[in-house]
From TrEMBL, chain A:
Location, primary (coarse class): membrane
Organism placement in taxonomy: Bacteria, Pseudomonadati, Pseudomonadota, Alphaproteobacteria, Rhodobacterales
Organism, as annotated: Thalassovita aquimarina
Protein name: Autoinducer 2 import system permease protein LsrD
Protein's job: Part of the ABC transporter complex LsrABCD involved in autoinducer 2 (AI-2) import. Probably responsible for the translocation of the substrate across the membrane.
Assigned keywords, A-Z: Cell inner membrane, Cell membrane, Membrane, Transmembrane, Transmembrane helix, Transport
Automatic annotation (TrEMBL), chain B:
Subcellular localization(s) per the UniProt record: Cell membrane
Function (record text): Part of the ABC transporter complex LsrABCD involved in autoinducer 2 (AI-2) import. Probably responsible for the translocation of the substrate across the membrane.
InterPro entries found in the cross-reference section: ABC_transp_permease
Pfam family, one: BPD_transp_2
The organism's place on the tree of life at top rank: Bacteria
Name this polypeptide is given: Autoinducer 2 import system permease protein LsrD
Organism of provenance: Thalassovita aquimarina
Amino acid sequence: MTDVIQAPTKPSAARRMLRTIAHWPPAFWGLIAVLLLAAFTQPHFLSVPFLMILLRQAAPLGIVALGQTFTIANRSLDLSVGAVIMLVNILVSDRIFLGFPAVIPISVALLAGVAVGLINGLLITVLRASAVVVTLGTASVVTGIGYLISGGAPGNAMSDTIKYIGRGRIELFPVSGLFWIASAIIAWIILRKLVFGRFIMAAGDNPSAAHYSGIPVTRTLLVSHIMSGVFAALGGLILSGLIGVGSLGLGADYVLSSIAAVILGGAVFGGGAGGAVGTVLGTMLLIMILNLLTVFGIDEAGKLVVQGLVIAVAAIIYQKSAAR
Amino acid sequence: MSDSTLTSSATSRLSLRDRFLLDARWYRQRGAALSALTFAVIFVVLAIALPGSFLTGRNFGNLLGQLPPLFIAGIGQTLVLLGGGFDLSVGSVISLTSAILALPLHWSATVPMALGAAIAVGLVNGWGIVKIGVHPIIMTLATSSIVQGIALTLLPVPGGIAPAPLVAMVRGDVLGLPLGALWVLVIGALAIGLTHGTGFGRALYAVGANPAAARLSGLPEARIRISTYVISASSAAVAGMYLTARLASSDPNVGSALGLDSVLAAALGGTLLSGGIGGPIGTVFGVGIIGLLNNGMNLAGISPFYQHIVKGTMLIVSVSLFRRKEVGL
């Protein structure tokens, strides 16, 4: 009888470590594999200046993906991030802001992100419409508004401050990389250290259970979508600075890539899993793979295939290991 | 009478007409009635506002020629949605079909190849979603990217000549009716017959409404859900063939807008994204609404920028009309 109620023996240190490692996101192992591959085939790939270029290129996607982490961990999805990036790009390069300090266009851009996130969140929570369709719809509306503001010909009156945020460097280190790190720390604190992060995970894992436990499920989802909108706007701001001009259709490929980065980072719909660190690793892995493919001379079409395969394989591996 | 899926032995003795009426009276079709009404209102408004350009035989000929690809893809998407799934790869399969038709081979080789490729995509989607348990949005997003990449590899830039027999099948008219209308009639009849006239259709509604209950009742739940993805991909291939033939040339990006429009058509027709409610009858009107609005805005000379806004707003309104139980995806 005593055997039955005996507490399970504490696993050994090595076993605990193995268990922790097994929970690291797929992106971690992928990143190691890709770095090894790069080290043996393209050693210059791992030189510090080149890595800094990669970092500057990865920062906008990294920030957008951090926002997407909130919605996916919350069992939702934001397909409007591409449209937000496009709108922000049109806004900050508009002639209206000529002569104003940079803080004005930056605030307008971030407010636009908040507004789109808030509208998404309200439609999803109040009307209980499907997040996929709502964010597709708002993406279409926001794209149309962007076209209307630009009149079909986006301006190139971008403030130098925004260009500095996107392109500037401190010594070798890109300024946009600092913004990415800061965003990641904020996202990590919210998701891992604040009660709100617990709410997101609980609501994402089992919405009914969370609701009956007294967790404000709808308010949590609303805030998750606002977070996604703000991060998308910040990512769009940095991408705009990197490009330096207004450009129609900017950001369209960020929808798929941001979801890919989050999934590579270990989050799945309804898993109540995933986090800032995983998404950062997922973004790094994705950018590494895409750049390695360029080095190997693979064109855009091949990259689409590889990106799709990476998402599918990561999702299948995750499902297989979760089922066990 | 209250639930056609539970009285399958009784309903199977009914005639096709009775069964159809049973389904049509059913509350699942309430969305179709609403979208038929919307369609009628838009039609009347356009007829009053633009009598000179809208109410012409030439314009209707154009409309009937333009709508079949969206209609065919939308029907496939409707079946996937009815089964509780979601297919984002429709647009890429249309593009892949167009690219395959441009291969320097005889059409008797490329047409079966295109269909075979589509069926393969559908099977992979179904396998990943149903057997492995990957979320439909993630799975079809991934295959969509892969398939689009393959299409661009096969045909990097638009070009090629569409097979002559296919072109003959979309151009011209029979008995004064454009051939496009014939495609809509045949495929619409097949889809409505399949969902409302067969055991597969009844099982599909049951699976979409409650997969676990359907499985416990002995329905081949997994096979039905997988087959919806295969049907969706195959109909996307047919849509791609029609589109290629109509343009008389191939384009590896031709389907990119149709993937989302197919969801819009189904949603406007009252098919719920949570499964089990709606059907192809509503999608007919959903496609009609999209077609009339595009057509009307073009005729009225409204900037395409506004068309984005109108389309997005319509999509949001159409899914907001029916409240779901769950919040989120």
